[in-house]
Amino acid sequence: MSTLTFTDADLAAISARFEPAPAADIVAWAVETFGDGLCLAASMADAVLIDVATKVDPSIEVVFLDTQYHFPETLATARRVEQRYRLKLRVLTPDREPDDLWRTDTDACCQARKVDPLSRHMAERAAWLTGLRRAESDSRRDAAIVQRDGRGLVKVNPLATWTDEQVDTYIREHDVPVNPLLFDGYPSIGCWPCTQRVEPGEDARAGRWAGSDKTECGLHL
């Protein structure tokens, strides 16, 4: 279904209706609505959304952005998750070789290594699922469950209302694969040059682009 079918008011109404809904119901709506035009973008911090989504549709397309600067633990988690869920995994890479752009312009680096590869892939898609949650940071606290993204596509955040405690409980009850860096001082995991350990009591995303005003890579802006 074309995203043009939905007005912004339609998406807001759908989002409001899903506020109390289980994540699986939200995923099921997205699968039924968008079919092959839907994909799931995974950061491989954990596989909670993948676990939820593959129980709805085992063949759902999962996209992983290989920036060429991931921690080895993140790449190992991606391989483990792919095998565990027998995923239809698409690994997207940038159209440039590794360089030092992250030293001088983190916005441009994220654009080239995350935003642009996903945009190229999404040119043939209508909607995407993300694991974004309101509890992750102040910049995400108003995130809708269903919204239009900067490309005009529909972005669905089935876990938007979940607390950290709900995530931990789901991981424990369903034996969900988790990136080991989460237990090594990295509650939010990005590329190794721009991610630091977080001190106790700090915001979970304080280690991302530490020392700068940057809080998002651009995928969710």
- Report the principal-axis shape: globular
**N-to-C CA distance:** 24 Å
- CATH class type: Alpha Beta
Radius of gyration: 17 Å
Quantity of strands, as a count: 6
CATH-level-4 superfamily name: HUPs
At the third CATH level, what is the topology name? Answer: Rossmann fold
Structural category: alpha/beta
Order of helices and strands: HHEHEHEHHEEEH
What proportion of the residues is helical, as a percent range? Answer: 25-40%
Uncertain segments are none
Largest sheet entry:
6 strands, mixed
Beta-strand share of residues: 5-15%
Corresponding CATH architecture:
3-Layer(aba) Sandwich
Order of the strands making up the biggest sheet = 3-2-1-4-6-5
Look at the structure and give the mean pLDDT: 92
The number of helical elements comes to 7
User: In total, how many domains does the architecture comprise?
Assistant: 1
Characterization of this structure:
The chain has 221 residues and is α/β, with parallel strands linked by helices. The chain has one domain: Rossmann fold, CATH 3.40.50. It has seven helices and six strands; from the N terminus they run ααβαβαβααβββα. Helix 2 (23-34) crosses helix 3. It is globular. The model has no long low-confidence stretch (mean pLDDT 92).
Topology overview:
Blueprint: H1 8-17, H2 23-34, E1 38-42, H3 48-56, E2 61-65, H4 72-85, E3 88-92, H5 101-104, H6 106-122, E4 127-129, E5 146-148, E6 154-156, H7 164-174
Parallel strand pairs: 1-2, 1-4, 2-3, 4-6
Antiparallel strand pairs: 5-6
